[in-house]
Design brief:
alpha/beta, Spore Coat Polysaccharide Biosynthesis Protein SpsA, Chain A, seven-stranded mixed sheet, two-stranded antiparallel sheet, 9 helices, globular, binds uridine-5'-diphosphate, binds the ligand O=C(O)[C@@H](COP(=O)(O)O)O[C@H]1O[C@H](CO)[C@@H](O)[C@H](O)[C@H]1O, Glyco_trans_2-like, magnesium
Length: about 220
Amino acid sequence: MKDRVVCLIPAYNEEERIGAVIDVVKSCRFVDRVYVIDDGSSDRTAEVAHEKGVNVLRLSQNMGKAYAVFFGVENTQSSIVLLLDADLVNLKVKDVENLLLPVLEDRADMTVGVFSEGRFSTDLAQKISPFLSGQRAIKRWVFDRILESRKDIKESGYAIEIILTEYAKKLKLRVETVQLPQVSHVMKEEKLGLLKGAQHRMKMYREILKGYVNLRKSRDEI
Ligand SMILES: O=c1ccn([C@@H]2O[C@H](COP(=O)(O)OP(=O)(O)O)[C@@H](O)[C@H]2O)c(=O)[nH]1
Ligand SMILES: O=C(O)[C@@H](COP(=O)(O)O)O[C@H]1O[C@H](CO)[C@@H](O)[C@H](O)[C@H]1O
């Protein structure tokens, strides 16, 4: 029987964090299958995922977040796709259920999870830019539509979320925001140290900006 919900977890060097996310998502009764897309990690991310008993799709080099997500989309089947980052902290089964239920019950085409009541810094970031959130449940046809009109989508790295947000507007999707109380993520500076973290953050902002400019250029093609 075809899966209803597949969870995709794009992951780049997340060996220390991904196990906890997998444990939670595996415990959610609504999730039929979990796939980690190992985006060319140089650490044991893929091994940890294997040990946890989920499916692993491995990219031989680091291709960026959008590539990893769409590689997962192209290599799975299900009517609903759940996207979760690999570095979430305090994620609970209830949060995963809350993300999925509006889409499962066809009250929404997309849900967007936002952190609240957790760490000040990550709550604030999501208050300012909830449209960047990587926690979403989405009907698969939305990805199909994006792939049809944006052949370059896989190259967009961290712009994937603003692209999803823009398509949601253009396609007039029913979008529901879901609170993720006490959930946070490990920030780049915490993972990589101050300097490397800041460099990685700048890379993220560059990719988001480039994605935004490309969206404006291709406005009418959606
Ligand atoms: O080149 C990349 C960069 C990030 N990620 C994954 O995308 C998610 C969000 O990325 P990141 O943690 O850098 O963003 P943050 O959570 O810090 O906003 C995480 O699961 C990363 O491991 C990825 O698959 N490929
Ligand atoms: O919240 C944010 O400002 C960024 C960066 O988070 P950190 O640098 O790790 O605190 O994270 C979000 O944006 C990325 C790009 O859209 C998404 O890929 C992440 O999933 C999301 O958490």
